Amino acid sequence: MPALSRRPRVVIAGAGIAGLTAALSLHAAGITDVTVREAVAAIHPLGVGINLLPHAVRELVELGLGERLAEIGVATADLTFLTPRGQRIWSEPRGLAAGYRWPQ
Q: Are 69 and 61 in contact (CB under 8 A)?
């Protein structure tokens, strides 16, 4: 099979967390001809949060985003379920508190 003589051109559908992470990973691997396509014309804050599992945080740290993530994120120490009256039903440590090397 003949070797490719030109660098690959990549199109990524979606500028969500997976699409943007894929683009950063490809760039870090030396693939720079990457286009990210998004269906909406402009991206606006939604007022919601995203809970990243420790392995996802590890990937973002490896992409060089750890410091910025620490500035704007909130590390989850535990997951707790409460009754409608606020009584604890169940609780479990998360991220660093659960023994992972990265926060959640």
A: yes
